Known about the structure:
Blueprint: H1 6-17, E1 44-46, H2 61-65, E2 71-77, E3 89-97, H3 106-110, E4 116-118, E5 133-134, H4 136-139, H5 160-164, H6 173-183, E6 188-190, E7 193-195, H7 197-201
Antiparallel strand pairs: 1-4, 2-3, 3-5, 6-7
Amino acid sequence: MGELPQVVRGFGTTFVTMFKHVNTEQYPEAKDKFPPKPRFHGRHQLNRHPDGLEKCVGCELCAWACPADAIYVEGADNNDIARFSPGERYGSVYQINYLRCIFCGLCIEACPTRALTMTHDFELADNGREKLIFEKADLLAPMLPGMLKPPHAMAPGTTAKDYYEGNVRGATPEQIADAEAQANPEPVVIEGVAFLDSEVSQ
Length: 202
């Protein structure tokens, strides 16, 4: 007896499948029962050092590595008044266009400071194209206990190498005191008129 025609064999497979148990994952009602795998590539995150300074140094290597041209970075120089990262530069503008991103992970492989990683967050759908262009504020990691919101000075007696080697464990009392002084500057009195330091410098 010869083989059955391809059409009959195909419909036979469909017919047999009709009586098999269907394993349907109820989403989003039971999504916690099926978490993403450990190596899943989801939404990106810009990480911070333990004292709150940003790890991104604005080198743009992630943008160069992206095959979909989904990342846009503008670097800027740090200074003693406004320091956002331990290095000479930081990422002043950081955008990821999730309409283009293919979640390949080449950007995180290219990052020399481990500033960019990928989380397990996959719920990125929205009702507007402009909402899928994430800015730096959308990508920055949240502030954890022991962190100080930048800009602020580096930990006293440390260099950028100490940060990259993980020797900085959190914000020091000196950093906290300096940040509070910048937030609440003392007035400078000149000939009976009080000015703030920022006004005098201008």
